Amino acid sequence: MPEVTRQIGLSLGADLCWPLAFEQILADSKLAVQVGGDTVRFACERLTLEPFNLRQPCKYDVVVDRLTHWLALQREWIKKSVLMDGLYVYNNPWSVQSYEKHSSYCAMMALSMPVPETMMVPQKNYPPKPDLEFTLQSYAKLFDLTVIGEQLGYPIFMKPFDGGGWQGVTKLDDKAQLHSAYEHSEQWLMHVQKAVDGFDLFVRAVGIGPQVRVIKYDATQPLHGRYTTERNFCTKAEEQEMVDTCLTINAFFGWDFNSCEALRKDSVFYPIDFANPCPDNQVNSIHYHWPWYVMSNLKWAVFTAATKKPMRKTLDFEPFYAIAKLDLPYREKLARYAKIARTRFEADRFEEFSQQKLRPLERAAMAWFVSDRCRSAIRVKVAHMYPPHEVESFTERFFQLVLQWCKDNQAYA
What number of other Cβ atoms are within 10 A of residue 306's Cβ? Predict the structure, then answer.
């Protein structure tokens, strides 16, 4: 039986802990799977930043990308490799570049998602450009910010239309705060969004391919405390709703790895932030949930590489819009959207593949997470983030949370 090797590339920025886990677990598993008439093995390496000829071949079958959202060179190399070499990459680089939070709000509103009432306001200041003064004098319409605040109703949030990482986000409780925030918004183009006041649950659903994990989130905590370890914080039906929401958004925009934040009020989940195609994945932030991320990332990368899953170069929104036009309750529409998503992510095939072929990978992962090598990888990240006197305590804290996850998930063992 012929033996072939699939190449997995890691496109990295300041990613320290999970690439170590990814590489070492994959090597430990000595994975060899039967696909068609081939025995498929896997190799993994980190991508470098260097000049490239547009016609040079791409050696990789799959790239796990964490860089194109802010480094143009890598984004353009990935675009070239998708178009010319059949590379599979997560996430779709054109979508990451083009569909910021504003576009994602508009698209999901069109699909009937209960996004809170949102307005866009003109920039307070503009970068200098020829004819800017003429254009503004001719066409910029005066508006009353006070009226906008009254129409939305306080509290409200002001936030950049394309932001991330909570940068520039301000909660506003009255007219004075609204005017002050706008005066200090500089050249940012801002949304003003009605707050979901009185919500009783904040969740973040993280999706990797067809795999979704729903986590209770506490935005009031420092980074290492936001992803809580609570379990059974919502009903199975509510969990499925968040899974379907995450899958719908990710498949719509061609994002293999993305997260969706939502607030629950009066039994309704209001999506508030769901254009996050480079979400938290480091042990210092997701700690307890980090083994799930590493294992899910490995399984999806191996599946896409082994099966030579083709990259969807176009997004094709029309099947979603066709459902949106139907006279159906929203939850039924969402279930139909999610069915499209599961088809695009080949969820059934992936599940069968995982059950039949990836047990060695899961066993290697469970052994690695309880090992000294795991602790060392955690320490590498902690030492990069924390002052020296806190390194050992936070390393131990995060390692114990990883061990707790392993204990709580013995089914993987």
Answer: 24
Strand partners, 204: 215, 261
According to the model, what pLDDT value does residue 189 have?
Answer: 93
Query: Residue 70: phi, psi to the nearest 5?
Result: -140, -5
pTM score of the predicted model:
0.94
Transcribe 65-124 into DSSP letters. ESSTTT-HHHHHHHHHHHHHH--EEES-HHHHHH--HHHHHHHHHHTT--PPPEEEE--S
Q: What is the predicted pLDDT for the residue at 338? A: 98
Q: Which two tokens stand for residue 277?
A: 């195609």
| Residues 148, 139: Cα–Cα separation, whole Å | 20
Q: Which two tokens stand for residue 9?
A: 């590339």
Give the pLDDT score at 68.
82
DSSP conformational letter for 216? E
What is the distance between the alpha carbons of residues 20 and 18, in angstroms, rounded to a whole number?
5
Name residues of the chain where pLDDT drops below 50: 413
Other CB atoms closer than 10 Å to residue 397's CB: what's the count? 15
Percent of the chain clearing pLDDT 90 (strictly above)? 87
| Predicted local distance difference test score (pLDDT) of residue 292 | 97
Is residue 158 within 8 A of residue 182, CB to CB? The reply is yes
CB 58 within 8 A of CB 4: no
pLDDT value at residue 411: 59
Sign of CA dihedral 376, 404, 280, 19: positive
Q: What's the pLDDT score for residue 294?
A: 97
Burial of 212 (0-12, 13-18, 19+ CB in 10 A): buried
Which domains are delineated in the chain? Answer: 1-91+283-309+346-413 (no CATH), 117-194 (3.30.1490.20)
